[in-house]
Amino acid sequence: MKGGFLALTGAALALVFALASAASGVLVLAARGRLGRLAPPARARLLLGAALAPALAGAAASAAVAADIAWSAVSRHCAERFAEASPAWPVAGFAAVWLGWFAWSLLRGSVAGLRAVRAGSRLRALSPRDPRGFRRIASSEAHAFVIGFRRPEVFLSEGLLRGVDPDAVETVLAHERAHVRRRDPLRRLLAGLALAFHLPGVAGALARALRRAEEASADAEAARALGDRARVAEALVRFARLRLPAALAAGFQGDGLEARVREVLAGEPTSNSPAAPLLAALALAALAATLAAGPALHAALERLFALAAR
Amino acid sequence: MGVSSPTLPKLGPLEEAVLEHLFETGESDVATAHAAVGQPRGIASNTVGSALERLHRKGLAERWKVAHAFRYRARLGRDELTARRLIAAAGGGALGQPSLLAAFVDALASRDAADLDRLEALIARKRAERKP
């Protein structure tokens, strides 16, 4: 198979990823009002679906075209027709830029993931277990987080334990246990890899929205477990106050704290939560439609190749 | 690759070595640090002095004057530095994108105490509204 044909195929796939990314970005932007009214776990599921959309769309389109090539009686499919073709310069440039971005995203994501795993192991080794069900980190800064993809664990720092009262520690623990139960670090890893298929701006916006939805889900779960929404909101503000000196030193203005406080105080919406079976049925229907459209996609791909080839 | 914490400045190799010297000795002046760290590397005393000055500016060392010369001491322990570095690395922060560390509040949530006061007042109002 010639390099020209591979470049054409790469450009076609890049186009599918870019279109799916743009479509999911526009949909999330257009529906942000409705998304805000969803219960946080439903919002997080939908945003994870949007993060996965380009990768799934690319896989489905590839499978549909491959199935058509394998099963159809057409003897001269695109691989034969365009075996000697080379892409026009703009198409080759588009494929090269996309491939470079994708490879860079995956590489730095993988390196960061490996570093995170190694750092997590060392933190586990250095942080003794507390009878209350978390590990204590020897840091005077306030930290509370969950790490671990396979066996997530809660870590609280000495600075946090010294800086807040036992009630607030219990609130923070309830929030972090929600992250453990939801396996959020693993979700973030999956989302991070899937976001490599997105256009850069869309990837960043989806990542921020997904993170906020996950935090809001853990806040809501903690509020349910404790039976007191205001207590969770108070713990958020107290924690932020402990971080104030570091934030001032870094000149950093975080976002999302006020929105989280307001959301947890308002309580969870009781309606508009799309049922998981409905979402699964929609995803299956979309997959079936893509596979059924194999011949049409194949024909569209050949037309695209004809336009893109020199 | 995004593993430095916003609260933990990046350090060059000489700064690392000088900080390690401060961990070992407890406190030091430029001449002692130069003898321990600079001379074996063939580095001038001024360069070691600049590294100490940078550690001070980055908030990792405190200093005070003793007879026209500064003495320096690390502002945090070796364990603390290790913990902060590991926390920064465990966050990933390079999948573009979502940090791999599910934190209670984003690393640095606010730099405005007035904002936090306002939020506390809001929470107090909500609590008062809910009381019968």
Detailed description of the structure:
The complex is a heterodimer of chains A (about 300) and B (about 130). Chain A is mostly helical. Helix content of chain A is about 75%, strand content about 5%. Chain A contains 14 helices and 4 strands. Chain A has helices spanning about 5-30, 30-35, 40-70, 80, 90-125, 160-165, 165-180, 185-195, 200-225, 230-240, 245-250, 255-265, 275-290, 295-310, and strands at about 130, 135, 145, 155. In chain A, strands 1-2-4-3 form a 4-stranded mixed β-sheet, with helices on both faces. In chain A, a hairpin with a 3-residue loop joins β1 and β2 (about 135). The mean pLDDT of chain A is about 80. Chain B has about 130 residues and is α+β, with helices and mostly antiparallel strands. Chain B has 2 domains: about 1-90, Orthogonal Bundle (Arc Repressor Mutant, subunit A), CATH 1.10.10; about 95-130, no CATH class. A 3-stranded antiparallel β-sheet of chain B has the order 1-3-2. Classes of the chains: A mainly alpha (about 300), B alpha+beta (about 130). At the A-B interface, α5, β3, α7, α8 and α9 of A face α4, β4 and α5 of B.
